[in-house]
Design goal:
Elements lengths: L9 H5 L8 E6 L7 H17 L4 E6 L11 H7 L4 E4 L26 H7 L11 E8 L4 E4 L14 E4 L2 H9 L3 E4 L5 H7 L4 E4 L3 H4 L8 E4 L7 E7 H6 L2 H10 L1 H25 L3 E4 L2 H11 L2 H11 L4 H8 L2
Parallel strand pairs: 1-2, 1-3, 6-7, 6-8, 9-11
Antiparallel strand pairs: 3-10, 4-10, 5-8, 5-9
């Protein structure tokens, strides 16, 4: 269940009683109305905003790319005001979120730690990267695994010469450290690319087995190595945010942020668990790496995080400070 902060007694004072000046905000995402976040985050947020403002501010959700096809341009749609609120992945515009995306890399956050919680414990350190928008939510998914169309991956050498789709630059660098070729593309293009052999597989969490039907083109899943963890965001056009009165901004602040983001993490990980179970019931095969094989993968990528941190420090990003904060 998605976690939202409750609006308590003070909400009545914040709610605007008259709908005479009702404002409708547009929330855009690229998935279907059956998508887990549509059902458990976007629609509930719309309902709660309408209730808390007495109908004076509402959110209309536009699914399936209705306000523009393709997930890659979602950030631009928020900047340009095509939508007031958008769901997007920082990885699709990685140059804007180099510091944020450090959490993708293995070893940056302690194993077993709640990455979403660690992000929000230090969220002020990302103010510069989100300065052009109002950040409403930022959360992580379940750990990524290798979804393979035809190839069994049981050891590192099995990846040699294969093409693996990745969602971001950091994930691409991880794949290349493992000896495969990284192919960047949005999730909406992966089904056809795996089906036709354009790519041999993808490194992603298992929720996509259902949400983007990749279970239909995935024969094997390999897990057990230290991999990546995708980051997701809900952002608002800066002008749209500033056009809201102080009371409505307070309502949005109460309904979003760390608590909503934790709800997003729970929704994503629960969807991953369900999708994997359904795929296994349908005859899919999971390959759990041996300890020796996992160690081989991990050794190949051991220095990646330190390399990226050093590069970003050189650009003045204080990646070292961000990485240290995430481990506290």
């Amino acid at each position: 269940m998605t976690v939202f902060k409750s609006i308590l007694g003070g909400a009545a004072a914040l709610a605007i009683s008259s709908a005479a000046f009702a404002e409708e905000l547009k929330l855009a995402h690229f998935s279907s109305i059956k998508y887990h976040l549509h059902v458990e985050m976007f629609v509930p947020l719309s309902e709660k905003v309408a209730e808390a403002t007495g109908g004076a501010t509402t959110i209309r959700v536009y699914p399936g790319g209705e306000l523009g096809a393709g997930p890659v341009k979602q950030y631009d749609r928020a900047i340009d005001g095509v939508a007031d609120i958008v769901y997007a992945l920082p990885g699709y515009t990685a140059s804007q979120f180099k510091k944020t995306l450090l959490v993708e890399l293995p070893g940056v956050v302690k194993p077993g730690a709640n990455k979403t919680e660690e992000i929000w414990n230090n969220i002020e350190m990302l103010d510069e990267e989100f300065r052009r928008t109002k950040l409403l939510g930022l959360w992580t998914a379940g750990d990524a695994v290798l979804l393979m169309a035809e190839k069994r991956i049981e050891q590192l050498s099995d990846l040699e010469g294969l093409k693996i789709r990745v969602p971001s630059k950091n994930t691409g660098r991880l794949i290349e450290a493992w000896g495969a070729t990284a192919v960047s593309m949005p999730i909406t293009e992966v089904y056809q690319s795996m089906d036709t052999g354009v790519v041999d597989g993808t490194l992603v969490d298992t929720s996509v087995l259902t949400s983007f039907k990749l279970g239909e083109v995935t024969k094997f899943i390999t897990r057990g190595m230290n991999a990546t963890n995708s980051v997701f965001m809900l952002i608002m056009n800066r002008d749209s945010w500033e056009s809201l009165d102080a009371d409505t901004q307070a309502i949005f602040t109460d309904l979003t942020g760390a608590d909503m983001s934790e709800g997003g993490r729970i929704t994503m990980t629960s969807a991953s668990d369900r999708a994997l179970a359904n795929w296994l019931d349908g005859g899919g095969e999971v390959i759990d790496l041996s300890a020796e094989a996992a160690a081989e993968f991990n050794f190949a990528s051991d220095n990646l995080a330190a390399t990226v941190i050093a590069e970003l420090d050189g650009e003045g990003k204080d990646a070292s400070g961000w990485a240290a904060a995430l481990k506290n």
